[in-house]
Design goal:
By secondary structure, this protein is of the alpha+beta class. Helix content is about 30%, strand content about 30%. The chain has 8 helices and 12 strands.
Length: about 280
């Protein structure tokens, strides 16, 4: 039965979720949100959203009982807004929803890769070096964050003001780095965040004029080695259509672990459908 649950619910310590916890890293990350919306039957599935601005993540245990589909569909509808609402789930669930002729699907769909790296491969050397991001380069890095959000389909397109907020959120983490070329110009950035022993790489962006020179591969290689040396499991999500970073990931040792489905539901049509009591 669907119910609102707390972040310390027993389902998060179940063997089924623990097996998938790194793949569903953003569920763990969102558990600390002040606007958290968290529903589950405490055994077979979890729906989690940290904010209306971002997708709802749906975890289902492998080979879940398809008799639960009507209940899961009802849970999905709890999260639908008065605009197209995005979700991320396993391919198994998405196919089951299709076969059940779920009528809430919107127009948005793409397959998101989940990659892991256990051992790095040294990339072709390039000029320049990696260093910790600095506040003195704020204008440049806010522009990087803004432009990255415009290029990658699974990332919310940010305004300059939102990009500045993102910069402030990560600049003092100690895990936000830049690559400077031989002329000491910043040409690439990347960062990672750590939750429950997993370091998730993100924010990889290279300026268009600097692409193809190995900067992304080298910063990812060095950052990944840093995280591995600290004992973390290392992973990332990727949009397979975004060539600049995907090639770099594979070149330094990341391998495909799974594919998650990002999809949308069409906006709710009636006041009853909005389920305002849950928002």
């Amino acid at each position: 039965m669907i119910k609102s649950i707390k972040p310390n619910n027993k389902i998060f310590s179940s063997p089924e979720f623990q097996k998938d916890k790194y793949k569903f890293f953003l569920i763990l990350k969102n558990l600390g949100s002040s606007t958290l919306e968290l529903y589950s039957d405490e055994e077979n599935y979890i729906l989690c959203r940290g904010s209306h601005e971002y997708p709802t993540w749906i975890w289902t245990k492998d080979n879940f009982d398809k008799a639960l589909l009507p209940e899961i569909e009802e849970a999905i509808d709890l999260y639908r807004l008065d605009k197209d609402t995005r979700y991320t789930c396993k391919r198994e669930l998405y196919k089951a929803l299709e076969e059940d002729k779920y009528d809430g699907f919107g127009d948005y769909f793409f397959e998101m890769g989940y990659l892991v790296c256990n051992n790095t491969v040294s990339p072709k050397k390039t000029d320049g070096h990696m260093e910790l991001a600095s506040r003195k380069d704020k204008d440049t890095l806010v522009d990087f964050i803004y432009k990255e959000s415009k290029e990658i389909s699974d990332v919310k397109s940010l305004t300059i003001e939102e990009a500045e907020k993102q910069f402030e959120k990560i600049i003092d983490t100690g895990t936000y780095y830049v690559w400077k070329d031989a002329n000491d110009k910043i040409v690439c950035q990347a960062n990672y965040s750590v939750i429950d022993g997993n370091a998730k790489m993100a924010g990889v962006y290279t300026t268009p004029e600097a692409r193809g020179k190995g900067y992304a591969a080298n910063i990812i290689y060095q950052l990944t080695n840093k995280a591995l040396s600290e004992g973390y499991h290392v992973s990332l999500y990727t949009d397979y259509n975004y060539v600049p970073s995907n090639k770099a990931y594979k070149n330094v040792g990341y391998i495909d672990e799974d594919v998650l489905i990002n999809f949308s539901c069409s906006k709710v049509k009636t006041n009853e459908d909005t389920h305002t009591s849950h928002r």
